[in-house]
Amino acid sequence: MAQADFLPRLPQQRRLYEAAKAAILSQQLGAGCKLPSTRNLAKDLGIARNTIIAAFEQLVAEGFVVTSTGSGTYVAATLPTVSRPKGKLKELPASTPKIPLAGPAPLSKRGAQLTEFAAGERYEIQPFAPGDCDFSTFPYKIWQRLQNRVWRDSWSELLDYGKAGGYLPLRRAIAEYLRVSRSVKVSIDQVMITAGTQQSLDLCAQLLADVGDTAWVENPCYWGARRVFESCDLHLHPIAVDAEGIAPTASELMSKPRLIYVTPSHQYPTGVVMSLARRRMLLELAENEGAWILEDDYDSEFRYTGRPLAALQGLDAHGRVVYMGTFSKVLYPGIKVGYLVVPPLLVEPFKSALYDLHRPGQLMIQAALADFIAAGHFTTHIRKIRQAYGAKRELLRKTLVAQVGNNIKISGEESGLHLVIELPDQVDDVALASLAAESGIAVKPLSNYYLQQPVRRGLLVGYAYVNMDKISYYGKLLAHVIQAGTRL
Length: 488
What we know:
With 488 residues, the chain is an alpha/beta fold.
């Protein structure tokens, strides 16, 4: 196993696996040779036994070794075929040349619309990018231990698609958490596990609205919701947002929306918290018009001042609210786990559609997450990162005020992962964001989130990702950019 020392750039598990495989293929470890026990090997090599167990499990899965209960692990008599490239492989091109197609356009009108403003590949994470998280705060060791335990104790159910609605223990854990933390009225059966907010929105649009139906969206609005509704051929009606949240006019209140999409706990992107009066107004409107309210509670865990208002869904007496949440902000984006809480009337239709249209899966991740919540790690993690993000927010605010003074107004900082620097109407916030990008700062222009005039000017500044010891540096750099770009 000494060959593991010659693979220093690989994780320990992979190094051990590669060294053992090489020894088997070179017949240093012949057929039928008994391998040391994982306990003795861990002691001899000075590494964790779980690491060795994981490497052995991979060797077993690929057919290099076999295990015998009570006897040990042996090199397999018949080894799997390992293909080896002949000669030097030709370097693959980074991209394929685009060859124009003759005849009709390759994309449908809807496809062309979808890709017109597509983000393409994920941008490189940069300071002050809104929505990015601080991955250094994630409890890696706890998560790895839970995942290892799930894989070690897994059974066939977790390798299959799973039942409609998602992994039952996770649905139970989410229901209990939402009842306590967000005053959501929920039974386990109402919780549906999805692949995130985008899938949740798509499912709601597909099941609750027909082509041409009207969807109210906040103005400004989360672009992801806009894209989903447009792809479903819904008519978007932007409703202005003021200091109390979504603010329909008298004439707009006479219209008949089918869907009403809102972010009441922390309006995206302005950060406004919807007042209780507005929440009641929306609930009354939905009941009278037969509309469905889609409540996106995407980052309600992060509130730094005052007590949060209960979820809009918790005030709903007539079953007109579909509540949705995600673990992408509080854990990490790549987990791709979100959830819906649907009214009792919609439980069976949503279960069927979720299974038929998207197929459930990733039950190993769901099982680890269920254990993470049930063991109390989730609430502990929330407390930890809320404190860390709150400190970053306060330091950023103080740095900006110290550098720019009263020439700018900061809003939306009471909760969430970003704040908004409001700018005068005559300032081009798009140009200012481009100027900041030249300095390596990824702020976003507020005006880009509006669907129609009038628009407000400002910059969205995300502070979660930046290390605490770099907040002041980047804050001063941003202040310099603002002063240069606005002549403040």
